Amino acid sequence: MKLKYFFLLLLTLLIVNSSLLIGTVRYVSKTGNSTPPYTSWTTAADSIQKCINICVDGDTIYVANGIYKENLVINTAVSLIGSSMDSTVIDGRGMGDITINCNANLILQGFHLYGKASGLGGAVILSLDSLDIKNCIISDVSIGVVITTTPKLFIQNVIFTNLTRGISAGEADISNCLFFLSNASSRGILIDFAPTKISEIKNNLIITTSTDPDNGITLGGPKSVLIKNNLISGFTYNIYFDLLADTAFIYNNSILYKHNQNNTFALNSENDNLLIENNIFANNHNAAIRGFPPYVKMDYNLFWKNQKDLYGLTYGDSDIVADPMFVNDTIPTANGGYDFHLQKYSPAIDKGDPAILDVDGSRSDIGMFGGPYGESYTYQNLSPKPPANLTATMDSGLVHLKWNRNTEADLFRYRVYRDTVPDFVYDTTKIIAVLSDTSFYDDPPQKYISGNYYYKITAIDSASNQSPASEEKHINITGIPEAPPIVVEHFRLLNNYPNPFNPSTTIPYRLKEPGYVKVMVYNLLGELVRVLVNQYQSAGYYKVLFHPTATERKSAEGKIEFETGYGDIVSGIYLYRIEVIGEGNIPVYTDMKKMMLVK
User: Bigger pLDDT: 347 or 164?
Assistant: First the structure.
């Protein structure tokens, strides 16, 4: 019995000590008061700083919804928990340089944090100690988070927007964050000042739309860093290495659409050691990777449409140069329709390092969704894109058709359609050829007899999915044998594809001659929704993406119910219209078509 009571006493002491370690729970509310100790909602403080001022190490502060217009100074180790990142706001705009100045450990969750104001200097959070930040929005400031010494930064599920630089830290674990940067000199993440520390950056979207950006990720002195499963797009250098004390592991990233002529992925030192595997480098200017052997070891990467893939390096034995077959390969923006999941039959599926497995246990895919930190999803078997840049010329009495080859790995055949009326419906009765080449000679049935002939091409994949048709080409064959047949080029507003669409669609058009072009989208009320093109363009074939925002999706049907950018969309009809102003400021072409957005 004595032993039993001893254990009961020991258990009681452990429970008491545990509660002491947790500290006191305190509360803040917009309807609160100024009388401590703020230990319930009914006795809550009316200011976050007032509550912080009476806290001791280990206290937890819960903050109710509302806008708290204050800057905070934190000198004790506390947990600061907001009710919701959407509606619990700490607003430092128009106040001091630092919204939250930390001199002690801080756990921060559930807030929208505003800084001094975008482009005016300052930071939302400046810390001399370790930080743990989750489920927050950080915006309107020069720098989001600055941790000036070597304690570690843990940051997860945080959105950075309308700022110049996201994070500056000596050591950091950064995961599942969104960096949408548009200001000049935009920089996502700087890891520096920690030659004995290891950092990890994984599962983040790091995107800039600035025309004058800085770097996506800059490494200036960490011992080692793991960069995995990120989308990095649009920066001067998407990843830049200034100095490493050890090795950087760069696995399963999609590194795309670098801004200018610099290399997208570069080393500044011949002593930096990189292991680069399972990444997709696509649509980058100049060299996708610049490095120095033997410091860079790379293999199992995929390269596509870079001006140059490598500088100072050679491909690994299992590197691939091919179309990755993204679901929607467009330049990433905050509200863009990009989707870098892989389509079925993508050459990047199961082509990563065999020693690295996907989350379903199969061999790793290449790109941001592969590997153990990736995502298991169903590969869509989409139709090919419509054949592009169809041309028609006369060659020895025959109509010579040429077009660009599709790049999908599962492409099987092309179908050539012909009719004698414009805007014809392409069906099996109009097929004149099925072939694998991108060149075809047609001998019209009324050779050298006056007549109009119209042509379209579609692409077929190995699953018999057919693409939308190419643009239509028109040839007029005159009835005078001595005269050459006339190849007629037109201004054309072509059918969008896909149609119906969800969430985005491509609108192609062709210009017969140069002019000032406007392409606009309207709702059924005749209200302007978006101007897609507003510039002078040379003659040729063009296409532009339309990806409606949440507000624009609602306007298609006039609905006003709540929806998020990732939720259900509203079905509705849009109108898209083109205007071309030619020489002498004279309108030369206008047309309008319908398209439908569907759930």
Answer: 347
The per-residue pLDDT for range 71-85, each reduced to its tens digit, is 999 999 999 999 999
Q: Provide the pLDDT for residue 219.
A: 84
d(CA 329, CA 499): 17
The predicted pLDDT at position 449 comes to 56
Query: Which residues lie below 8 Å from residue 593, measured CB to CB, with a gap of 6+?
Result: 493, 495, 496, 575, 576, 577
Coil, helix or strand at residue 545: strand
- DSSP line for 513-537: S-EEEEEEEE-TTS-EEEEEEEEEE
Query: What are the pLDDT digits (tens) for 346-400?
Result: 999 999 999 999 999 999 999 999 999 999 999 999 999 999 999 998 876 788 9
Domain boundary among 488, 518, 552: 488
Q: Please count the structural domains in the chain.
A: 2
CB 187 within 8 A of CB 166: yes
Are 578 and 591 spatial neighbours (Cβ–Cβ below 8 Å)? yes
Domain match, 496 and 484 both: no
**Strands 224-228 and 247-251: what pairing?**
parallel
Would the CA dihedral through 348, 349, 354, 357 be positive or negative? positive
Q: Which two tokens stand for residue 130?
A: 């370790």
User: For the domain that residue 447 is a member of, what is the CATH number?
Assistant: 2.60.40.10
Domain that holds residue 421: 391-488
* Phi-psi domain of 300 (left: phi exceeds 0; alpha: psi -120 through 50; beta: other): left
Whole-structure pTM over 0.85, yes or no? no
Q: pLDDT > 90: what percent of the chain?
A: 50
3-class SS at 303?
A: strand
Whole-angstrom distance, CA of residue 135 vs CA of residue 155 = 9
Q: How far apart are alpha carbons 21 and 9 in whole angstroms?
A: 18
Q: Residue 246 corresponds to which amino acid?
A: D
68, 85 in Cβ contact below 8 A? no
Contact 198, 224 (CB under 8 A): yes
The three-class DSSP label of residue 551 is helix
Q: Please say which residue of 471, 488, 505 terminates a domain.
A: 488
Strands (E), 264-378: 265-267, 273-277, 280-282, 287-290, 296-299, 302-304, 308-311, 320-321, 326-328, 339-342
Structural domain includes residue 284: no
Are 593 and 496 in a shared domain? yes
Q: What is the pLDDT of residues 438-478, one digit of tens each?
A: 999 887 765 445 688 999 999 999 999 999 999 999 988 76
